[in-house]
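chain and backbone:
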Amino acid sequence: MSHAVPAPVLPLTYLERPPYPQAAPAPLLILLHGVGSNERDLFRLAPALDGRFRVLSVRGPLVRAEGSYAWFIPAFTANGIQIDPAELDASRQTLNTFIAAAVRAFAAEPERVYLLGFSQGAIMSLTLALTEPERLAAVVAIAGRIPPEVLPWAGPRLPRVRCATYHHGSHARRCRRVAQRAAR
């Protein structure tokens, strides 16, 4: 997206769709792509999203190949998909830093930050909903899950973040129920 002034430098690469009409402070809607994709993937949704949001489509920090990024690199083993908790936690912390910096850079209200994630982006969204609920107003998680590696990082109380999960477009559940099932 082109800017009349230089875009703020944030800790992750991103594309921005400013709010229209320009209203300050605008809520932030942060889009998180799936494994092997990049910030351009979900950004194609920006024209269809509510214009009151400042939309930031963020690139995962890990490079898989040219134009291919991830939030963590899954290992496909005989025991199923394995996630390196340290790698996931590093991306979680980087995303937390990005959100805090974006709130400052765009003079956004911290309680009006929304995440929309697909696949790995949904995993990251749900991870933040469990571990940093005070940072988020709501989460939309498409084709994601809460990996068991995340559960030890969650606080003693389940989050009150509004959260909808969509699996193959068929249904939505509140985050609280998703977390309860994942904890079993």
The first strand starts at residue 14 and ends at 17.
